Task: inverse folding
């Protein structure tokens, strides 16, 4: 791992110019400096991380995230990430906590406090509140001997890494590490809880993310809308049915109701001859068609439809025993925002 120095070595005239090469040098230095900090953080994690997850996972109430200044902005994002991944959480501003918002932190809650120095004065009342009510307190700080680290049940320490700021003053690398550590805690907690994509969807019903997490059963057509027939139906009648249902295909079911084949526009073209209309559906159908289950994600259906070797425009949705439960057309995915 390369060592990144705290200062940026730039030409003397770089301060008064804005040449593209200089801008790129600055940008790469910042990113490399922060990447170095993240790698140092990953290397420094030890058993205290697991202890912190223990405390947060044991909370019967909520995880209360707090921090002042830039740490507060990071804390808000961490609280939002925790809440959206199955760990009830909220952010409490430490200064507001001293003026009544301590009432938001109750027995059963756990507190996650962020302070790079560990000496943030505004956190004092909140820390005393945790000790008074026996609330688990997890600290994220850079100083093991700080007041916050000493008061916490467990402190996750940030490694000594240079700030990306050329003066070494504005918190950049340190807040990046805090943010990433919050993500690591959220993922560890959701992994312990067995949090699934379906659980995730419950907290993200709207927007593009909610669309991506829709299940096939949410957009498929069911019942009489399905174009189904038996293998002994004559093609003249089958074509009438196929045209009426408007899916561009016809599912073929056996005696037990299971899907045994499909007739598509491609099958019609391959079988085109003078006696096509008098032939039985079973003579021209494609056996064992591609299908999908109702609980699969709609995104998975789109992936199957767009298979490079043989794309299709419709999929039958089958349950146990390959019994048809619905049909899904690519237009349904387009309308729902999947494609």
Result:
């Amino acid at each position: 791992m390369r060592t990144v120095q705290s200062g940026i070595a730039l030409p003397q005239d770089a301060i008064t110019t804005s040449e593209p090469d200089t801008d790129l040098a600055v940008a790469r230095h910042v990113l490399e400096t922060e990447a170095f900090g993240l790698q140092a953080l990953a290397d420094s994690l030890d058993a205290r991380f697991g202890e912190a997850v223990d405390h947060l996972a044991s909370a019967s109430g909520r995880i209360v995230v707090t921090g002042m200044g830039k740490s507060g902005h990071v804390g808000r994002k961490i609280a939002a990430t925790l809440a959206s991944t199955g760990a009830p959480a909220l952010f409490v501003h430490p200064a507001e906590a001293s003026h009544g918002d301590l009432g938001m932190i109750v027995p059963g809650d756990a507190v996650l406090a962020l302070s790079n120095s560990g000496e943030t004065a505004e956190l004092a009342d909140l820390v005393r509140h945790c000790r008074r009510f026996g609330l688990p307190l997890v600290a994220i700080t850079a100083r093991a001997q700080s007041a916050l680290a000493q008061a916490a049940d467990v402190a996750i320490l940030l490694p000594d890494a240079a700030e990306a700021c050329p003066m070494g003053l504005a918190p950049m690398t340190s807040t990046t590490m805090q943010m990433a550590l919050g993500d690591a805690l959220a993922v560890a907690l959701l992994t312990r809880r067995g949090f699934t994509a379906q659980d995730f969807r419950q907290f993200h019903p709207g927007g593009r993310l909610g669309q991506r997490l829709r299940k096939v059963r949410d957009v498929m057509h069911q019942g009489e809308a399905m174009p189904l027939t038996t293998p002994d139906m004559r093609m003249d009648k089958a074509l009438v049915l196929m045209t009426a249902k408007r899916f561009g295909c016809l599912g073929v079911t056996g005696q037990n109701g299971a899907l045994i084949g499909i007739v598509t526009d491609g099958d019609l073209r391959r079988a085109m001859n003078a006696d096509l209309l008098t032939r039985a559906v079973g003579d021209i159908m494609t056996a064992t068609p591609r299908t999908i289950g109702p609980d699969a994600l709609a995104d998975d259906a789109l992936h199957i439809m767009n298979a490079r070797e043989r794309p299709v425009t419709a999929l039958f949705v089958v349950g146990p025993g390959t019994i048809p439960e619905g049909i899904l057309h690519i237009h349904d995915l387009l309308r729902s925002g999947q494609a």
In short: The chain has two domains: 12-195, 216-335. Confidence is low (pLDDT under 50) at residues 1-16. Residues 12-195 form a domain with the Rossmann fold fold (CATH 3.40.50.10490). The radius of gyration is 30 Å.
